[in-house]
Specification:
heterodimer, A: alpha+beta, Glutaredoxin, B: alpha/beta, Rossmann fold, 5 domains, 25 helices
């Protein structure tokens, strides 16, 4: 527990407090924490358990069940390649493979420099512009294998 | 804003706001109204920027007294977006960019002249079409039931919704007894739009008439890949869904309603919360609605990315803060649901239909459709089809009409191969099924299902074994793990399919798959597992020769499975330009001694043993001289 910063403990306590009138607030608390910190490590899960009285095993069960929650920090840019059916039949897998090849990471992983996380998305409803890639919420329409290099370069250039 | 505390005030507001809308759509001479599509598809193509620019220019030119501009819901014709529509002429501009805004203002709004180059061009006749309902895509549709108000009203403005008829259905319901409301919905023939098609009125009638808390739940966890109907309905007219939920709440005796919406739909969540907040402010949500003793409160819960939460008992567990695992049924949620209280879970589109039925009367709804299924269905048309988008068609429309008349056929002159409906629980239908009328019974009889409304078209370039593998990968990821037939069975199915797609398949694999399918289907706990193998069953049934080619000849007829295909440069077409050579990441392309068409250049050749099949060469070739074989 010592690892958590006092500000973090304060913020998490506030989040738990927000939902004190809800009968079963676990999901809502965890969603807010995920949004606020980007991940929910074990120490945080223990704290939430202490504050809510929900067993930490249950909280761990929830965190590991839903894909929205993560136990490790994500990269600065989260590249989501849509593999919904519409994107898949239009070559989304090839786009994903290209990102994976150029970044040297598998889906779900983060680059060593902490810049990029590669994720698979299950349909973001942008089927009209398939195959779609979403980077930190910005949607890239009709991405071709050829474009992948430039997209990565665009973000690397921002950092240089 | 003034409160609406009784029927008289609602009627007054309806008439007043209705007149305002009327004025907007049929402007007085000199006045104009501009609406811009604010669906997720158009927003991703910067429709917000278009709207901001319109408002800027309107101000710059001092037109704000005569010209308005606001956002509306999805137009559905997503492949042609972003859309701008001008009233009263109803001119529809397609594929608008921010840079086009000034021209529209100058030419159309000020000059009264249509900007021809931004009109939709009919691909067959090459004619420019000015009005929305003259476009073929819209002709066979009936977009005023579930998509009521989408692309007409501002989803962020409660008054426009009220002026367009929202809460008239609720008002009517509140004059009826609970039994009468259930009876009205039963008579309309409405069946749940979430996929299974259970009669909605019947579901409501299962709720016991005991005291104590009961809950209404709206299932907006639209997880089917390739489906975005519910998202568009919430984004386009949130009040219609809220009203439907209130009517259902009244019918079953619930005072609280929960919306369970995917976190991946930020726009929908924003508009829904905005609508709930404003309705609370004016008293249409809360205690003693319209002066009656009916009280109702709405709450929003976000999904956290689990497909199985679309299953109603898993969804309930998720609201309760647990892992989204299904519960055995019975007891059904109508008896023991959220927090062990009687609950009804209805889909978004179902609830939108409920508000239509109560507003317009059951007869009008029941007059549309087939003997099996009444009303309309919204489909998200996607994949290899020209007119990608959201369509609402009367039940009984055939698949052929859906694909060719509305969808505009297959792009690039390719051949139609299959249409997949029902998402990961559904199946593929082929050429011979195209005259099947769309309703719950007919689609099941043809070997697929209605599902929630995803309709993905595939052409000759799609490998059906690969498609089955795709769905199996999805299901494996999303199986909650509670029961072993689903958790282990789907994994084993995927292993076999992967083996076949890797070119290592044997004839025995097909038999093994069939056995496994029986086990998974008959022994899984919930619908996710029971239907998980449908994509394999339907592709095996419709394309047995493709499976055989994979396991017997180790060939992928569509050249998709990488281990069974190669890239090949056609010597008589190769110009020798060398573009492919520069794009190759492994340097497996080299010159032969055959002279190419460009003098001094030689025809190129791919060394198949080194090729990693990335496809860069084919994507880069300007002369279409590289093929897959």
């Amino acid at each position: 527990m010592a690892k958590l910063q006092p500000q973090a403990v304060k913020l998490i306590t506030e989040i738990v407090e927000r939902y004190k009138d809800e009968p079963t607030p676990t999901m809502m608390i965890l969603e807010d924490i995920q949004r606020e910190f980007g991940y929910i490590p074990l120490e945080v899960q223990e704290l939430v358990s202490q504050l809510t009285g929900v067993p930490v095993s249950d909280i761990y069960g929830v965190v590991t069940f839903y894909s929205f929650f993560s136990m490790s920090p994500k990269g600065k840019y989260v590249i989501g390649v849509c593999l919904g059916t519409a994107c898949y039949v239009k070559g989304g897998q090839l786009v994903l493979d290209k990102f994976s090849e150029l970044l040297g990471i598998k889906p779900g992983e983060t680059t060593e420099d902490g810049l990029f996380t590669l994720d698979i998305l299950r349909c973001i409803g942008a089927c009209a512009v398939a195959p779609a890639v979403s980077i930190n919420g910005k949607v890239y329409p009709q991405v071709k294998v050829d474009n992948v290099k430039n997209i990565i370069a665009e973000y690397r250039a921002k950092e240089a | 804003m003034n409160k609406i505390t009784n029927e008289k005030e609602l009627t007054e507001r309806f008439e007043h706001c209705g007149k305002c809308l009327e004025k907007k759509f049929h402007c007085e001479p000199g006045y104009r109204a501009i609406v811009v599509c604010g669906g997720t598809g158009c927003l991703s193509a910067d429709s917000q920027g278009i709207m901001d620019r319109f408002n800027e220019v309107i101000k710059e030119k001092g037109l704000q007294d005569k010209v308005t501009c606001n956002v509306v819901g999805c137009f559905g014709f997503c492949s042609q977006g972003p859309f701008v529509k001008i009233f009263p002429e109803e001119t529809l501009y397609t594929k608008v960019k921010v840079a086009d805004v000034d021209e529209i203002i100058e030419k159309d709004i000020i000059g009264g002249e249509v900007v021809d180059r931004l009109l939709f061009v009919d691909p067959q006749t090459k004619e420019h079409v000015q009005k929305q309902n003259e476009i073929n895509f819209y002709k066979l549709q009936k977009r005023d039931i579930a998509l009521h108000g989408n692309s007409e009203i501002n989803p962020e403005d409660i008054d426009e919704a009220i002026g367009y008829g929202a809460f008239q259905g609720l008002n009517r319901a509140l004059h009826m007894t609970r039994e009468e409301v259930i009876d009205e919905v039963l008579k309309s023939g409405l069946r749940g739009r979430g996929g299974a098609g259970f009669p909605t009125g019947k579901k409501w009638s299962f709720v016991p008439k005991t005291d104590g808390p009961k809950y209404m739940i709206c299932n907006g966890d639209e997880g089917d890949p390739g489906a975005f109907m519910d998202r568009s309905i919430i984004e386009g007219n949130p009040c219609a869904v809220i009203e439907g939920m209130m009517i259902a709440g009244y019918a079953i005796g619930a005072n609280d309603g929960y919306f369970y919406v995917r976190a991946e739909y930020p726009v929908a969540v924003k508009r829904l919360s905005n609508a709930i907040k404003k309705l609370e402010e004016i008293g249409l949500l809360g205690d003693h609605i319209l002066g009656t003793d009916f009280s109702f409160h709405c709450h929003i819960r976000l999904g956290a990315g689990a497909f199985v939460c679309g299953e109603e008992t898993a969804l309930i567990n998720s609201i309760e803060g647990k892992r989204g695992m299904p519960r055995p049924r019975p007891p059904f949620p109508a008896v023991k649901g959220l927090w062990n209280c009687p609950s009804v879970v209805n889909n978004v589109e179902t609830l939108a239909c409920v508000s239509y039925i109560l507003r317009e009367g059951w007869e009008k709804f029941a007059a549309i459709g087939t003997a099996d299924t009444k009303g309309t269905k919204v489909f998200a048309l996607g994949g290899k089809i020209n007119n990608v988008g959201l369509v609402e068609v009367p039940m009984g429309t055939t698949l052929r009409q859906l694909i060719y008349d509305i969808g505009g056929g297959i792009p690039n002159g390719k051949k139609f191969k299959a249409i997949q409906t029902g998402g990961p629980s559904g199946g593929c239908l082929t050429e011979k099924d195209l005259d099947t009328p769309i309703d719950f019974g007919s689609l099941v009889a043809a070997g697929s299902m209605m599902g929630s409304g995803g309709a993905i078209v595939m052409d000759e370039d799609n490998c059906m074994v690969d498609v089955a593998k795709f769905y199996m990968t999805f299901i494996c990821d999303e199986s909650c793990g509670k029961c072993s037939p689903c958790r282990i069975g789907t994994r084993r199915c995927l292993d076999i399919l992967t083996k076949i797609c890797d070119g290592k398949g044997e004839e025995k694999d097909i038999q093994d798959l069939k056995e496994l399918i029986d086990v998974v289907r008959n022994n899984s706990l919930c619908a996710l597992g029971q239907t998980a193998t449908n994509p394999i069953v339907s592709t095996m049934k419709a394309f047995p020769e493709e499976y055989e080619a994979h396991v017997k000849d180790h060939k992928c007829p569509a050249h998709v499975c990488k281990n069974m295909m190669e890239y090949y440069i056609l010597p008589d077409k190769c110009m020798g330009c060398g573009l492919c050579q520069r794009g190759c990441p492994v340097g497996c392309i080299s010159a032969t001694d055959l002279p190419a068409k460009i003098p001094g250049k030689f025809v190129l050749k791919i060394d198949a043993s080194k090729c990693v099949k990335c496809g860069n060469c084919q994507a880069g070739c300007r002369f279409n001289s590289i093929i897959k074989r």
